[in-house]
């Protein structure tokens, strides 16, 4: 039976849910408070890493579920969203060994490389101790991916409304009784179900709607772009902490049309998404410049351009993808959700249709320290 579904939030996750729901024949309306392609949330910019390598095999499986969906999205929308350039992981041998084992266990190709082999193949990169390469990885074109998802959803009948802020959601708590959504621009809208994908606004928006939400930290992260004429040829890379390199969360990077993007994972200051200054921290820019001088000969000595973006991080960095009554929640993507977008859209559609969710992503799960 076709359901009437409202999706709150038109970032990556709301757009992905809208595409997968409309692909299953549901009648979808997306409500997004800002304009198309805005840069106030988590999904804007020209690049995100796609990769299969994760220490936790279920994330590798989720990325494998996303890969053919990204390719199907390209066919449906006529837009290019994913370029496979491969990924290099290097640093702590223990970390690299686990990643290689998980990939091999999933039947995927993985190559072990010495630091010398990395430099020979990608002269812009210098690898620490152990390294590995997997080819099923690369660059998602972030802004294009969000617009392609919304376009593909619209082609399947979804309505996409920008400039509409949802100010309240009312429901009895019982599945089957529907929801009423109140906005700042029009009368209340009613539907069978609502999907809430409000990114960094989740900690303020969701507690009134669902129980068992894990605590979430909203931070302003600030990667930089280094200019490099060959940026689009770079693989994505992660320098994992360990083996004498002690930066918590490590360093990630990838080529993009804006240059080689390099960033730290989840170290930004806590912010209110409605009142953040968007001013890059000069000390963090300086740290990345020094990192490039030491580890990225391909961009050493160049002038980086910073940008800012929001992370919404749970204590275990696992996502929140669950349903209570008619409310499906997509939240807490902890700085690594983009690659899984259309697979998460599919999980949201499963929940809306009444299928069970995944324990790892459940509301009310135990999280470290809570
Ligand atoms: C610097 C940076 C680098 C990253 N790198 C990677 C990477 O390499 N690989 C990877 O997999 N992931 C990466 N991520 C993570 C990934 O980008 C996010 O997980 C993902 O974009 C989250 O999307 P979202 O839809 O949850 O949030 P958002 O994109 O913020 O979307 C939420 C939307 O909800 C809207 N909204 C909020 N409140 C309301 C309301 N009341 N009414 C209507 N609309 C509302 C907002 O305007 C916003 O558009 C990175 C993130 C950042 C910040």
UniProtKB/TrEMBL annotation:
Q: Which InterPro entries match?
A: FAD-dep_OxRdtase (IPR006076), FAD/NAD-bd_sf (IPR036188), MTOX (IPR045170)
Q: Where is the FAD dependent oxidoreductase domain?
A: 4-351
**Lineage: superkingdom:** Bacteria
What broad class of enzyme is this?
A: oxidoreductase
Enzyme Commission number(s) from the entry: 1.5.3.1
One GO MF term attached to the UniProt entry:
sarcosine oxidase activity
- Alphabetically ordered keywords of this record: FAD, Flavoprotein, Oxidoreductase
* Needed co-factor(s): FAD
Mind telling me which PANTHER family this protein's record contains?
Answer: FAD DEPENDENT OXIDOREDUCTASE DOMAIN-CONTAINING PROTEIN (PTHR10961:SF7), PEROXISOMAL SARCOSINE OXIDASE (PTHR10961)
Q: What is this protein called?
A: Sarcosine oxidase
Instruction: Give the source lineage, highest ranks first.
Output: Bacteria, Bacillati, Actinomycetota, Actinomycetes, Kitasatosporales
């Amino acid at each position: 039976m076709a359901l009437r579904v409202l999706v709150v939030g038109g970032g990556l996750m709301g757009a992905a849910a809208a595409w997968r729901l409309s692909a299953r024949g549901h009648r979808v309306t997306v409500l997004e408070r800002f304009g198309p392609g805005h840069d106030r949330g988590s999904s804007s910019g020209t690049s995100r890493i796609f990769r299969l390598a994760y220490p936790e095999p279920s994330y590798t499986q989720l990325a494998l579920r996303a890969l053919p969906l990204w390719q199907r999205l390209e066919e449906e929308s006529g837009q290019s969203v994913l370029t496979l350039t491969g990924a290099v992981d290097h640093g702590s041998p223990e970390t690299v060994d686990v990643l290689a084992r998980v990939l091999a266990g999933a039947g995927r190709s993985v190559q072990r490389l010495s630091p010398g082999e990395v430099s020979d193949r990608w002269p812009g990169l210098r690898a620490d101790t152990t390294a590995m390469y997997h080819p099923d990885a690369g660059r998602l074109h972030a802004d294009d991916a969000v617009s392609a998802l919304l376009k593909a959803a619209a082609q399947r009948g979804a309505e996409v409304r920008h400039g509409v802020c949802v100010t309240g959601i009312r429901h009895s708590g019982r599945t089957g009784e529907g929801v009423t959504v109140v906005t700042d621009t029009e009368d209340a809208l009613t539907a069978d179900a609502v999907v809430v994908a409000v990114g960094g606004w989740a900690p303020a928006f969701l507690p009134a709607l669902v129980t068992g939400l894990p605590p979430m930290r909203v931070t302003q992260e600030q990667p930089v772009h280094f200019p490099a004429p060959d940026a689009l040829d770079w693989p994505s890379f992660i320098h994992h902490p360990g083996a004498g390199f002690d930066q918590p969360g490590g360093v990630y990077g990838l080529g993009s049309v804006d240059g080689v993007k390099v960033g730290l994972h989840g170290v930004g200051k806590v912010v209110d998404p409605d009142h953040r200054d968007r001013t890059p921290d000069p000390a963090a820019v300086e740290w990345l410049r020094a990192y490039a001088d030491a580890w990225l000969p391909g961009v050493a000595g160049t002038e980086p351009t910073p940008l800012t973006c929001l992370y919404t991080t749970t204590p275990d960095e696992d996502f929140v993808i669950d349903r209570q009554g008619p409310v499906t929640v997509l939240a807490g993507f902890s700085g690594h959700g983009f690659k899984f977008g259309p697979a998460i859209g599919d999980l949201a559609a499963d929940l809306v249709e009444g299928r069970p969710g995944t324990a790892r992503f459940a509301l009310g799960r135990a999280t470290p320290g809570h």
